[in-house]
Automatic annotation (TrEMBL):
Superkingdom of source: Bacteria
Native source organism of the sequence: Rossellomorea aquimaris
Protein name: Gfo/Idh/MocA family oxidoreductase
InterPro entries: Gfo/Idh/MocA-like_OxRdtase_N, Gfo/Idh/MocA_oxidoreduct, NAD(P)-bd_dom_sf
Pfam families the UniProt entry points to: GFO_IDH_MocA
Length: 299
């Protein structure tokens, strides 16, 4: 299978390129306008084919593409790929605009092509294990950053979207209501608290981007058991006075712990075998729609 990787920034260097370059049966084509980065990474990973534009990439007859550019470029690139019959994996979010997001979902359906959004937390082993513990009655996710307030739309749609999607994944029930509290100073959103309410389940998502530490914590309560996942790699199980700890072995690769191996494998398997991804592009649209609703309640 021939796959294009568009955009060779931080996430591509840390995640997609290392994972894709290890896979057998994959012919990888690199694409970026930055000639120095393109040549350096092609040499490092011994990749023969490299191009400077999406048009050149399409001409190489790729089967699928990973879109890992700046968010502002996602829509134009993804639209062009789908229009040319190419399956796409898109780093979250699809777009900062809900209308552009809806257009991509519709275009993928019209062209009969696979489109998938990169919500890697759904593929993180310690997160997936939570769903094996029974249906939750209460969920709490905190995803905080050190001293990094932002404008509401970018804060929510580009970053908090991970919290919304992970809550939806773990709730495993339709979101019936959304409640929002927030703090804005000088037009910048500093922190956000959101409740997603479903049948017999309440979930709370918190993001403080003006805090003292960058951290991510998930609390999952099912029955009389509580599970706390810290930094996505370590789980503490509480049951009354009993406490147990579960973590990865010393040799487990970071990209496996972060879900990227399973995520990439799933997308490629869907392309090879004509399967619908999980999450489907329609399911990912629901996450985008909830984020748009949150932005509307803030602005």
């Amino acid at each position: 299978m021939k796959i294009g990787l568009i955009g060779l920034g931080d996430i591509s260097k840390k995640a997609y390129l290392p994972v894709l370059s290890e896979k057998e049966g994959i012919e990888l084509v690199l694409c970026t306008r930055n000639a120095e980065t393109l040549n350096a990474l092609a040499t490092k990973y011994r990749i023969q084919e490299k191009v400077h534009s999406v048009e050149e990439l399409i001409a190489t007859n790729i089967d699928a593409a990973f879109v890992s550019t700046a968010t502002e470029a996602h829509f134009e690139i993804t639209e062009k790929l789908l229009q040319n019959g190419i399956n796409v994996y898109i780093d979250k979010p699809i777009s900062l605009s809900i209308h552009e997001t809806e257009r991509i979902v519709q275009l993928a359906k019209e062209r009969g092509k696979i489109a998938m959004v990169g919500f890697n937390r759904r593929f993180i082993p310690k997160v997936r294990e939570l769903k094996e513990q029974g249906k939750p009655s209460f969920l709490l996710i905190q995803k905080n950053r050190y001293a990094l307030p932002d404008y509401a739309r970018r804060f929510v749609v580009e970053d908090f979207i991970h919290v919304v999607d992970t809550l939806r994944f773990l709730m495993d029930t339709e979101v019936q209501d959304v409640k929002v509290q927030y703090l804005i100073k000088d037009d910048m959103l500093h922190h956000l608290v959101v409740q997603l309410i479903g049948e017999e389940c309440t979930s709370v998502g918190i993001m403080n981007r003006d805090g003292g530490v960058t951290e991510e914590i998930i609390e999952y309560s099912a029955g009389h058991h509580k599970y706390v996942v810290n930094s996505l790699v370590e789980t503490t199980h509480y049951h009354n006075k009993e406490v147990s700890l579960s973590s990865f072995g010393d040799w487990e690769p970071t990209l496996y712990k972060r879900g990227f191996y399973d995520l990439v494998d799933h997308f490629i398997d869907c392309v090879e075998n004509g399967k619908t991804p999980d999450p489907s592009i329609e399911d990912s649209l629901v996450t985008h729609e909830i984020c748009e609703r949150i932005v509307g309640m803030i602005e």
